[in-house]
Write a structure and sequence with these properties.
By secondary structure, this protein is an alpha+beta fold. The chain has seven helices and nine strands. The model is unreliable at 197-221 (pLDDT under 50).
């Protein structure tokens, strides 16, 4: 079977359908006339790059989202895979968390799996709440975790319990009462490129990425002084 790439008209029609917009509503949002959008959807007209850029800006989308196919389209198979364990994970220590980033050799992942050990017990110790784009799932492996979020009351999670939330909402994981530390498994998603590079993103660490120290160059031996001629 040969796979026919979708036309611009089909992609825009799919986008409009997913958003539940009529042609008139899409026209009002994008600033492009109804007649033009209709012709594009029926393959009678195309849009220049400038018009596509205008469309994405007016709709508050990235250009790539305009060309996203609907859920019914056959997905591309990347055949990527990675086996991970704590021995091969990237270990990053921060004041609040002790992280192990799993499957770190894969770049541009859509999901970022992390094993975390929590130590901080109060918001005063933790500092400002963390924000980053995407969504987050966390499962408590050991101990008790108190999750503080920007718009909800704190929730207490015990071993075996989990939570899924919008991670653009400010959040902080703290160790619950009666525990010295807790362990969680977290999977983060993000539309930000480079969330998993290099090793850890600034939003969770509150620290700059450390560069390897360079050994100071050996000082050259001083040149021998010239002896003055005797008078």
């Amino acid at each position: 079977m040969t796979f026919e790439p979708p036309t611009l008209g089909a992609l825009l029609r799919g986008l409009r359908s997913r958003q539940g917009w009529t042609l008139k509503e899409m026209s009002e949002k994008s600033g492009i006339p109804v007649s033009t959008l209709s012709k594009v959807e029926h393959g009678q007209l195309t849009l220049t790059y400038d018009k596509l850029y205008q469309l994405s800006q007016r709709l508050g989308m990235r250009m790539s989202e305009l060309f996203a196919e609907d859920a019914g389209a056959e997905p591309a198979v990347t055949a990527r895979r990675s086996l991970g364990d704590l021995k091969t994970a990237v270990h990053v220590q921060t004041p609040n968390y002790d992280y192990h980033y799993l499957c770190a050799e894969l770049r541009r992942k859509q999901m970022i799996p992390v094993m975390g050990r929590l130590r901080t017990k109060t918001l005063e110790e933790f500092g400002r709440l963390v924000h980053h784009s995407g969504e987050e799932f966390s499962y408590v492996i050991k101990g008790t975790v108190v999750l503080h979020t920007e718009f909800y009351d704190p929730v207490v999670l015990h071993a075996g319990q989990s939570i899924y939330f919008d991670s653009s909402m400010g959040h902080a994981y703290l160790v619950g009462e009666g525990c010295d530390e807790a362990e969680i498994m977290t999977v983060m998603t993000s539309s930000e490129e480079g969330l998993d590079e290099p090793m850890v993103h600034a939003g969770h660490t509150h620290l700059p990425v450390l560069k390897p120290k360079r050994e100071p160059a050996a000082k050259a031996a001083p040149a021998p002084r010239k002896r003055k001629n005797a008078a």
